[in-house]
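Example record

One chain of 282 residues, shown exactly as stored in the release files.
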Amino acid sequence: MSGSSPAARLQRLFEGQRLTPTQRRIAHSMVRRAADAPFLSSVELAELAGVSQPSVTRFAVALGFDGYPALRKHLREVTPEGAADGGGAEESFNEYQQAVRAEIENLRHLAELLADPAPVERAGRLLAGSRPLLVLGLRAASSQARGFGYFAAKVHPDVRVLDEGGSMLHDRIDAAARAGASALMCFALPRHPREAVDALAYARERGLTVVTVADSAFAPVAAHSDLLIPAAVGTGLAFDTACAPMLLGRVLLEAMCDGLPEAQARLEEFDARAAARGLFVE
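Predicted structure tokens for this chain:
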């Protein structure tokens, strides 16, 4: 990991790790004090992050080390002499810019995945053919589900968004299945709610085909998905960033439109009504 800034080296250590919000706070504090991080005691790091000292120990274990001393030893070993003085273009990027650059990399990976359009085209046909169409997204994924549902409703005749858990969730899946639903679109982002996994298992029991956008092909929802398309989330900030899953959702909307012959007519009708109502300002 030599040849880059202390902050960049720490970012790479944390990338792809599934950390709790408390552990993300510790990681964020280390990146902000990257040059000093290899020399901080666990107590000093705990005070810096505003967490308990045992939380720092658990953080080190979550990264794969025996404890915090092993993590600190590793950081000292990979820190080249004079790294704090640094040099080179990457050192000009602060932790916020690095988070953006990581998201750009996630989008590059998504572009490579979409070189084979067959999974997206299959998903589009499944979603277009379902009447009604269920869209599920709980907790961190609820905004993805609502956004997808908002646009899908402009071209699909019956879209039902499931963005809250609770005892009614299975009832709403039942109602959709009785009404003729054949597919469920799921957005699944970490941390994965148990309710979402249970809901997908139940949807498949009711005969629905599950199309899932998840942060990884190995996400907990994978076992209950008929077609899973991965789109990585960014983990460089205290809370995940989800640019790639959002873009993949828009790509799936486009594929769904291709499977709905009346999609263009519905959009034109909406535009005409919106203009008549003065719905938008120019």
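Notes: The two ends are 50 Å apart (CA to CA).
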